[in-house]
Structure formats: C-alpha cells, structure tokens
Amino acid sequence: MNDANHARIEPFPAAVEIEEIAVAGFANPVSLFERLVQESLKPTQSVVHYLNIHVANTAFADVRLKDILQRSDLVYCDGAGIVLGSKLLGSPLPTRLTAADWFLEMLAYFTEKQRRVYLLGGDPGIPEAAVAEITSRLGRHTVVGAHHGFILSDPALQAQVIEDINALQPDILIVGFGTPLQEYWIDAHRGKLNVPVIYAIGAVMDFISQKVSRCPQWMGDAGFEWLYRLYTEPGRLGGRYVLGNPWFLGRIALKAMLARSLKQLQGRFREQVASTLDSQLMHKRFRRKVASGGPRPLAPGL
Q: Is the peptide bond before 180 cis (omega within 30 degrees of 0)?
C-alpha cells in the first residue's frame, strides 16, 4: 500500500446489501483505517467484522452468525468473490480489503494516530512471533499486548485474558479466531471488555508471523488468492473453495436473475395499467362529447 498517504480518505462510504448484510464499500484500506480510528473515539463501543465468501456461506446456514453480522457496527468486503457478487447484483463494491495485505500499514497508521492495540488469536507462540515481526518491520508501534487464541475451552484463562486486556486499556482489540468462533466470542464477551473497538480479523497473525505464506501480489490483485490457498492447503480448504465459491455465486446469480425478472414483470404490468387507463380515459372523453351533443356513433347499417 505504497500510495496510502495519497489515497482519498472516505471513512463513511455507502453500503451494499449482500444477502441481507450491509457491506461498506471502502475504496481503499486507508479509509478503513480512518474509520476504525474514528470509531475508537466514540463514547460507545463498536464491533467491526468482514465478509468474504466463507463468512457469507457460514452466515447463510447459521442464523446466529448472520444476526451478529447484521447487528455489528461495520462490515467490510474481504474477498474478490464478494466484489463479484455485488457486480452481479448491480451494486458493485469498489474493491476487496484483505487485512493480510496491509496489516502492518494499518498498525503504522494506528501508531501515527496514537491508538493502542491488543492482538488476540493464533496458536500459542504465534502472537509473540507476530509482535517480533511487527517490531522488526515497523520499529515503533502501539501494540500493547498479545495472547494466543486457545482460550475458548479454559474459562479461567479466558477471564484472565479479559482482565489483562482491560488493564492495558487498548483502543482497538484485534481478534483472530477464525469464523465463526471469533464472531461468537466477541458477541458473547463484548460487554466484559472495556475496549472502544473490537475488530474481528481472521488468521492475519499466521501470515504476519510467516507461519502461512501469502500468494504473489499479482494473484491477489487479480482475485485469485483463493486459488493459491487451495493449492497450498487442499485438505483444509478444498471444500471451502471448490464447493463454497460456486454455492455463493449461484445464490447471488439466482437472486440477480429473479430481481431482473421481477423488474421486467413490474415494467410490463405498469405498461398494461397505463394502457388500460389511457383507454378508459379516451372512452370517458368520448362519452362526454356524446352527452354534450358532440359526434354520435353511426346507426347500424348506415
């Protein structure tokens, strides 16, 4: 994101509805960064989520997850498939925002804006490796704490982590458990967390710590990161991409087709109604002329 400083900042873009979930149409990452900063300055807590095809498919089959996303303060587009889906629906989103592409730039932005950050997620050892990489790449930063994500089955550890987060007073808590665990956890515990912004971000720390490799930039820019991930992790991601992508796009294509068909039917109905009204109006005018002594119809046989 070399042109971040020159990007036009629009932190409150219009949203596009994808399967009843409002998705903000950020044109560039820096607009999202600024939105997170502004959310962190509010007196009330904000929760931020993302939508990609995997999240959309999970939410389609999971009423609880869909409700969480619908109630969140912000959902943004994190996938080329969602961009494609929005185009099929006739309301194209500008671009996908994948956190692994610009996570370090985001932390640098938060440092500039003096926003303190806590990282929660990943396997044991991953957060420490991520912070070491952040320090190596950025030098100065405002990450005030980090902890792995293996806390869900240990209530005592979970309570301790929440206590530690509150004691460190971050402005932004970044949670990366993967969908739907991160969304469930945030929704269940947000009331215990004295943090202005809670931001679900997925497996970004795996990428930052270099546990998982990223695709070449040209593949990501072309919308084929899913293909690279499928190649590197076929066993884990085969079903998600090989079955999940067509399932999502099929639903969206069907909805778009039905919407177009309905629009055409509505157009024809309006035309028929207008034609009928015109005929009735002409008939009324003719009857008025007859009643006022105007032209009369010819008698039969004349």
A: yes
pLDDT at 302 over 50: no
Class of residue 284 by CB neighbours under 10 A (exposed 0-12, middle 13-18, buried 19+):
exposed
| Percentage above 90 pLDDT, the chain | 70
Among the residue ranges 90-99, 106-115, 257-266, 280-289, the one predicted with the least confidence is 280-289
- Give the tens place of pLDDT for each residue, 188-212: 999 999 999 999 999 888 888 877 6
Q: Count CA atoms closer than 13 A to 139's CA, side-chain side.
A: 1
When mean pLDDT is compared across 9-18, 47-56, 138-147, 256-265, the lowest value belongs to: 256-265
Q: What is the mean pLDDT of residues 215-234?
A: 70
Distance (Å, whole) CA 18 – CA 14: 13
- pLDDT-based confidence at residue 36 (cuts at 50, 70, 90): very high
Sort strands 74-77 and 172-176 into parallel, antiparallel or unpaired.
unpaired
HEC string for the chain: CCCHHHCCCCCCCCEEEECCEEEECCCCHHHHHHHHHHHHCCCCCEEEEEECHHHHHHHHHCHHHHHHHHHCCEEEECCHHHHHHHHHCCCCCCCCCCHHHHHHHHHHHHHHCCCCEEEEECCCCHHHHHHHHHHHHHCCCCEEEEECCCCCCCHHHHHHHHHHHHHHCCCEEEEECCCCHHHHHHHHHHHHCCCCEEEECCCHHHHHCCCCCCCCHHHHHCCCHHHHHHHHCHHHHHHHHHHHHHHHHHHHHHHHHHHHHHHHHHHHHHHHHHHHHHHHHHHHHHHHHHHCCCCCCCCCCC
